[in-house]
Automatic annotation (TrEMBL):
Name of the protein in its database record: Endo/exonuclease/phosphatase domain-containing protein
Phylogenetic classification of the source organism: Eukaryota, Metazoa, Spiralia, Lophotrochozoa, Platyhelminthes
Matching Gene3D superfamilies: Endonuclease/exonuclease/phosphatase
Organism: Mesocestoides corti
Gene Ontology molecular function, alphabetical: catalytic activity
UniProt cross-references to SUPFAM superfamilies, sorted A to Z: DNase I-like
Family matches, as Pfam families: Exo_endo_phos (PF03372)
Region annotation (Disordered) ranges: 91-111
A GO cellular component annotation in the UniProt record: plasma membrane
Domain Endonuclease/exonuclease/phosphatase: start-end pairs: 163-444
Length: 455
């Protein structure tokens, strides 16, 4: 353990206290520019955090602003607790009691001094543990990056962006995880999605936690995004199927829709099951939602078809479920008026080039995502464009009705469809192999498509 590099002066304790109070007073009154002029080592983002923090409640203690090594050394010097500091930086912060034994070997202990309050050895130990995992460095890079605060592109006000995302067995516990919740919220916000269908919702309450975060953010990057993009933030609402649609990995599965209630109006919803006494046509029942986009009516049916598996019999079930979707299309064509548009979206567990989808193509439906675009994260990272003729795992998709593709009335597909395959990783989410952080909220990528309204 390194020796303390600071030489303490013998100032009167009352004099030190007076100087501390003067510094606290400065940070409570100074503008961001004044803070940067006096302490340029802070940088704009930290200075802004200090100003924002005191707007919620006045700063009461000096340690509220000395979590950075450079500013801590300068503040200690100003109040007279450091007369000279020419030695290398210590491995741990200055402490008034004997330091605890190092938790790691000498080769694994971080060299940087922890940025925690003076004299808090438990915080020092925690910092050293987190530092060794790489979490501190990745978090600093994440919060200082500008990507998370920027909108992905410019979307006209007359265009609605709709999406689908399999959230990989989202539960309340997962939604409470700050990394998972922030990754989901930022993805939706950055890509300016107006309405999104979720599959593999194990607990509908988890979706409400996402809604609450979107409307009243408490997580740091969601709060920053909302502050930097106030006109694009909107208000949010969600609803889930009132009964389970099936099972996933022995857990109950529900389907949900989350939408911007200031742009989209939800009218009704229902779970589409088999008739009484008949065999279930789907392993997981489709969930239908009816919406108003401006004056146009759109019916979205969210599906999660059975995964083919390794056995031929399981693959046959998936193919059969696609055929049952064709029956659903026939039923909608027979019952819906000509001015109502519809789309089937979700996790099909089957590439759109499969012959099974000929039943939909023959009825005029077309996929928004081509088969060359992988939607499973592992396949995306291996080969984003499906080069080399390998399987692309294009499972998540949207099948559009003929009126949306032709753009004859009301709504029309603009041709813009995207697999979101960047910005999904979050430094607080562990990787599946537990070898580090920077994991994903789901093994699926969200996909979105744009509809232009001509009303």
């Amino acid at each position: 353990m390194g020796q303390c590099c600071c030489i303490l002066t013998s100032l009167n304790p009352s004099e030190i206290l007076s100087k501390k109070k003067a510094l606290v007073k400065f940070f409570n009154a100074a503008s961001k520019e004044e803070i940067l002029n006096r302490y340029p080592c802070l940088g704009e983002s930290v200075a802004q955090v200090i100003v924002a923090r005191r707007q919620r409640a006045p700063l009461k203690r000096l340690k509220d602003v000395w979590y950075l090594e450079a500013i801590r050394q300068q503040l200690l010097a100003e109040i007279g607790l450091i007369a000279d500091d020419t030695s290398p930086p210590p491995e741990v912060g200055i402490t008034e009691r004997a330091p605890p034994p190092p938790p790691f070997s000498a080769s694994s202990v971080p060299n940087e001094s922890p940025r925690f309050p003076f004299g808090d050895s438990s915080a020092v130990e925690l910092f050293q543990v987190l530092k060794a995992t790489g979490l501190i460095d990745s978090w600093e890079k994440y919060v200082n990056g500008s990507l998370s605060l920027c909108a992905s592109d410019s979307v006209p006000a007359s265009t609605y962006r709709l999406a689908t995302w399999n959230l990989d067995r989202i539960t309340v516990a997962k939604a409470k995880h700050p990394g998972i919740r922030e990754a989901i919220c930022l993805t939706i916000l950055r890509h300016q999605i107006d309405l999104i269908a979720f599959q593999e919702v194990v607990e509908p309450e988890a979706v409400q936690l996402i809604v609450d975060e979107m409307n009243l953010p408490v997580l740091p990057m969601v709060k920053r995004w909302a502050a930097a993009n106030q006109q694009k933030h909107g208000t949010w609402a969600a609803f889930s199927s009132n009964e389970k649609t099936g099972h996933t990995f022995q857990s109950k599965e529900y389907s949900s829709f989350l939408y911007r209630s200031d742009r989209v109006k939800a009218i009704s919803s229902r779970v589409l099951g088999g008739t009484n006494g008949s065999a279930r046509p789907f392993s997981r029942s489709p969930f239908m939602g009816k919406f108003k986009l401006n004056s146009s009516t759109l019916i979205l049916t969210s599906v999660h078809l059975k995964a083919p598996g390794l056995r031929d019999s399981q693959a046959a079930v998936t193919t059969e479920e696609v055929s049952n979707l064709a029956d659903l299309v026939d039923a909608m064509k027979d019952t819906l008026s000509s001015d109502v548009h519809y789309a089937i979206l979700g996790d099909f567990n089957l590439d759109p080039s499969s012959e099974a989808f000929d039943a939909l193509r023959s009825r005029g439906l077309s996929p928004a995502i081509p088969s060359t675009c992988a939607t499973m994260v592992t396949a995306v990272e291996r080969s984003p464009t499906g080069q080399g003729g390998k399987t692309t795992s294009c499972f998540d998709n949207v099948w559009l009705c003929p009126s949306l593709s032709s753009g004859s009335t009301g709504l029309r597909f603009t041709g813009v469809s995207v697999v979101v395959n960047t910005g999904l990783r979050h430094p607080l989410i562990p990787r599946p192999d537990l070898a580090g952080f920077g994991g994903l909220p789901s093994d699926h990528c969200p996909v979105y498509f744009d509809l232009a309204c001509s009303d």
